[in-house]
Amino acid sequence: MADTLEFNEIYQEVKGSMNDGRLRLSRQGVIFKNSKTGKVDNIQASELAEGVWRRVALGHGLKLLTKNGHVYKYDGFRESEFDKLSEFFRAHYRLELAEKDLCVKGWNWGTVRFGGQLLSFDIGEQPVFEIPLSNVSQCTTGKNEVTLEFHQNDDAEVSLMEVRFYVPPTQEDGVDPVEAFAQNVLSKADVIQATGDAICIFRELQCLTPRGRYDIRIYPTFLHLHGKTFDYKIPYTTVLRLFLLPHKGQMFFVISLDPPIKQGQTRYHFLILLFSKDEDISLTLNMNEEEVEKRFEGRLTKNMSGSLYEMVSRVMKALVNRKITVPGNFQGHSGAQCITCSYKASSGLLYPLERGFIYVHKPPVHIRFDEISFVNFARGTTTTRSFDFEIETKQGTQYTFSSIEREEYGKLFDFVNAKKLNIKNRGLKEGMKQSYDEYADSDEDQHDAYLERMKEEGKIREENANDSSDGSGEETDESFNPGEEDDDVAEEFDSNASASSSSGDGDSDRDEKKPAKKAKIVKDRKPRKKQPESKKGKDPNAPKRPMSAYMLWLNASREKIKSDHPGISITDLSKKAGELWKAMSKEKKEEWDRKAEDARRDYERAMKEYSVGGRSESSRMERSKKKKKKQEKQMKGKAEKKGTFSKSSSSTKSPAKNSSETFKSKEFVSSDESSSGESKKEDSDDEGAASPARSSEDSASASD
């Protein structure tokens, strides 16, 4: 007999919806892990009171009842698995797995039986339907009538909203059967009623999701958010996880909810509060010390003081009875425990945790390591200074966190590698296989990181209070100087080089040489722009190249294709033509090949005639055009030489008067004028008509 039984694709019925997950039965008890939320239900073997096997809509189901009245339903079993389960229950839990079928007579009268958390409507000994009383949101009574209203479920396509029971009057004196029915329902129903005073109230807290400022009233069983426009009541049973995330001088306190809170069609799966680290508060609980000690067992005291975020997180941890998740050992390039990035259209922060990733704040995303299929580091789409971090889950959902600075790559890659996550395109290497327990809660850890952090902060606070005159605070401030980093960056990209090095004449000479190089580069590029002119000058009288067989056929068939397919686009027409040409027979293609061959022969004949007569005419026209251009250049050269001669003579007499140009060193002048002289010399060589007197003037100006 096996010590454990495991079942995949089992569905747990919770508030009208079927949650997919994995079920494991062992000697210690029953464990079910929700695939969507990662929530784990653990039922100890000693708590099991009854097991029922019955036929349901999804095949066969298992209903487990505990000694404290809780009911758990699991569907999706096959009929052949009954013997295996029955034997396992008998051997390890000492329970008989009873077979009970539902009544399908279709009668609407019977008896109502209350047992634990269930309302069962029976006909004879067989149940017709069962209602978990935790699903009831409201119970109202009328004359001989009780109405039950239920919580709406977003995951279910169809939700049952209301059921009415007719309760016949009885002859018993002093007992109203309608009131007795309603009291039995309300004693187990999940009806949120603000009875009595709140344990404590936090005023005007800044809330990012849902946005606004809210008063948070802490009640024994639920949390009440009271804003100017909306109110939300959040039962503690809907809280999945708590996160405390630091960022510079602020703290994010994130509460994960399932099911989410609703406002119209909007669903909020996360409640995000933003605190300043410097904000302190003194808190007094609305309970006496004995009640505080009895209920919270030392986790809270009647009078507490400290940072506002610490007080809120401490109270929530005690009431919800869940650990607070904080960032682990990850540190980014800047020393922060998060990475600045963008998700969808908004910018936010990605926190690598010990067992997952969380992104805040719009929209908030929490991804557990055990649901990740692989991650990928992709090149940024807009710039090479950033990269994208992609995560794909086992369900096929993809999350892309973009615009991450390139400096964060090494830290993030090392973190992913250390957590043994599968990296795309690298494969799952040896020793990289994930070692997560399939049935472990994603929040479980060997130590409480939040508790350790609170202890460390308490020690630091005590040291600062005892030794206020010590300069340790100033030293920590001096260790990070943003001004120095800004100066380094400005110096690297500073265009004014004389500000950093202006002591020597050699430096100034080097600075002055730089514009000369730029001028040369510009002059070298000029002839490249003129190159296309020769390409543009095509002879319009030259014969046109012959078309291929396909193009000849397409020109002949284009109108026919258009008439056969009215309204066809150009791209679709070309596709259709390609398909028709491909499907054409060899004989028809040969006909168009012959036409193409005839066209090629005609082209060759025309080219021979053109080369004898037409090309000589075109060459004469080209020569005349070149002559005109050379004459224009010659006239421009004369005008420029007169201007340079007058300028050089005036500069020898009074160099300080030349206000239009900045001072140029000898190297700049000689290189500039020599290059101009060379270009002029080339022009004179091309013309073949430059006078010796003019060339002597050129050499004189270059030597000056």
From TrEMBL:
Q: Where is the composition biased (Basic and acidic residues)?
A: 530-542, 632-643
* One GO CC term, this protein: nucleolus
Q: Which residues bind DNA?
A: 543-611
Which ranges are annotated Basic residues under compositional bias? 515-529
The annotated region (Disordered) lies at: 456-549, 607-704
Known InterPro entries for this protein?
Answer: HMG_box_dom, HMG_box_dom_sf, PH-like_dom_sf, RTT106/SPT16-like_middle_dom, RTT106/SSRP1_HistChap/FACT, SSRP1-like_PH1, SSRP1/POB3, SSRP1/POB3_N
Give the protein's function: Component of the FACT complex, a general chromatin factor that acts to reorganize nucleosomes. The FACT complex is involved in multiple processes that require DNA as a template such as mRNA elongation, DNA replication and DNA repair. During transcription elongation the FACT complex acts as a histone chaperone that both destabilizes and restores nucleosomal structure.
Q: What is this protein called?
A: FACT complex subunit SSRP1
